[in-house]
Amino acid sequence: MGSRREPPPPPPPQNRQFHREREGVARDQPKVTNTMRKLFVPNTQSGQREGLIKHLLAKREKEYVNIQSFRFFVGTWNVNGQSPDSGLKPWLVCDSDPPDVYCIGFQELDLSTEAFFYFDSMKEQEWLAAVEKALHPKAKYKKVQMIRLVGMMLVVFARKDQLSYITDIMAETVGTGIMGKMGNKGGVAVRFVFHNTTFCIVNSHLAAHVEDFERRNQDYKDICARLSFLPPDQGLPQLSIMKHDVVIWLGDLNYRLCLPDASEVKTLISKNELQKLLTYDQLNIQRTHKRAFADFTEGEIKFIPTYKFDSKTDRWDSSGKCRVPAWCDRILWRGGNINQLRYCSHMDLKTSDHKPVSSLFLIGVKVVDEQKYRRLFEDIVRMMDRMENDFLPSLELSRREFVFEKVKFRQLQKEKFQITNNGQVTCHFSFIPKLNDSQYCKPWLRAEPCEGYLEPNETVDISLDVYVSKDSVTLLNSGEDRIEDILVLHLDRGKDYFLTISGSYLPSCFGTSLEALCRMRRPIREVPVTKLVDLEKSLLQMGPSDSEDASERPLQVPKEIWLLVDHLFKHACHQEDLFQTPGMQEELQQIIDCLDTSIPETIPGSNHSVAEALLIFLEALPEPVICYELYQRCLDCSHDSRLCRQMISHLPRCHRNVFRYLMAFLRELLKYSEDNNVSANMIATLFTSLLLRPPPNLMSKQTPQDRQRAISFLLGFLLGGDEE
């Protein structure tokens, strides 16, 4: 389900002003009331009051802010792994007035295997230096923040005279490549508060290929769902992209034209019939159908497509593939008080097969009037004094019991209910942990929003989401956990309300141990739950035996692994970008259901979905293929292929068989690397993170050197001959 998305805290700007207020109060003793002094006593009640004051201030923000306009330059460029070979001024300085803020995004900054797997990139410094050298000469700038994920880099600069008004800066990344991890595709974002307005800048590189617009839509939704910022103050909820006043989204969004004939497109471009072409633009079509970027705005496009050119030229792609020109590189926005002054491409820059794009915005920013702010602050404190003495908060809940039937691995279920403030005062609600618990709910459950403020007579919808991920699936499969929980909804200065969660869970082969699966000849759903529980318990106690009769003897490898690998071996050896392109979520769900309920003749879904299902299966194993207890020894012997082979011989029989079976398949796959674009390095790095995982207690201590030794261990088997 990705990162938790929760309601925004009371706006940080008020927080900053609030601290200033304290300083002002300290200097101006006569105006301080006892109530205001109480606010700053560090106890829970004072924290609750402070939060409530911030909430009420945010509600009445219009009473103390003025709108002031600032210039924002936004640029995006897919640089195709190249180094800068000319100055960037034609792109970054195309206006006589200097911008107040620069937001500059790159894609494909570095195409090397090292960058793909999160290692450092020399290109980062090269491009950063080129940008710094080309900023507007009429102002002095300082870097606010920079963030990079593989080839996506976002850097924000601000004029030095505006720097002190930029606060609460955070940066985050999310990969949407295979398994939602690999960072060859995805997004990077920077959020900050400028005066009293919250900004989120997103730079993304979405899935490629003309026909894959649905995958691009999925990438967009994934970034929105999973990219969130965690404030340093633990008490504050996470901030999602859309919980900002202004969102600017830039990047190589990779949407193409629904016209297959490159020569027809080039003819329309030469006749300057851009508006006709734009009716075939996939992003425009998807936005119209509200499938992606639905509530974003884009300026009118008056420049020719920015992709694809022969590098170092203005000539359209003349390679054998002869790509159809497209507006891949875009800048969109959402929020109020935003006026786009210019939206254009920069044909003079010829480094890459894409042209850079820029937009100049005039954005109205909320600037605080300190005097008005102080007056309102004092009014609110006095009003709270009166209200608190007279009234206690209370809530009304539309439901208190929730049943989730037939919960499945990786399949989201939601139940909604309403809470209404039926008291006389503004109240703050939050879900709190039960006694001796650190979290308010079990790992497969969450409430959205999990805290917030309600005005008298105001109602809010709360969604209870159940989602079984790899982290919770094993305990549910084994019967050690059940779909049962009690939530405590706490009302500050009021009472607690109890919500009962119950339901049923359908076991999955995903998250079940290799030993247990090798003893199941039927699909897991046909095995009685009591037998599943007994099976896992007995395997823990006795370990495998070789003396069973033939019908009871375990399978060599789990049938689920055999079905997935056999399918890929028969159908996917020549598949371009195998193990690098994510599957589709609907197809992944069909594959999981299929393996849980049947022994299918063929597996549904595309090759990419089957490949990702195999990776998800390996990632969900409670004990990885190379057992945790051998992890350190494998690292220690990674320099010696003979010792590596000995290590594998120490594995339990079914783990050993699965490892050898997977290695044989992957070596076969590497024979077709011309077609499938798979390299030994890439495969070793990807599969090491699944097959040779550090034990959970060492996960956070794993160093880059440890990772490299683990990769070397696997490379020996991929590049060597047969290991037996």
Question: What characterizes the major β-sheet?
Answer: 6 strands, mixed
Low-confidence stretches: 1-43, 542-549
Classification by helices and strands: alpha+beta
Query: Helical region count?
Result: 23
Q: What features would you describe in this structure?
A:
α4 (89-92) links the parallel β1 (65-78) and β2. This protein is 34% helix and 22% strand. Residues 1-43 and 542-549 have low confidence and may be disordered. Strands 3-4-2-1-13-12 form a six-stranded mixed beta sheet. The chain contains 23 helices and 22 strands. By secondary structure, it is an alpha+beta fold.
Write the layout of secondary structure elements.
Blueprint: H1 12-27, H2 34-39, H3 44-59, E1 65-78, H4 89-92, E2 101-107, H5 113-116, H6 122-134, E3 141-149, E4 152-159, E5 166-175, E6 186-194, E7 197-205, H7 213-226, E8 228-229, E9 239-240, E10 246-252, H8 262-270, H9 274-278, H10 282-288, E11 329-334, E12 338-345, E13 357-368, H11 370-390, E14 395-397, E15 401-407, E16 413-421, E17 427-432, E18 445-448, E19 451-454, E20 459-466, H12 470-477, E21 485-491, E22 496-505, H13 514-518, H14 529-542, H15 559-571, H16 585-597, H17 607-620, H18 631-636, H19 641-649, H20 653-670, H21 673-676, H22 680-691, H23 704-719
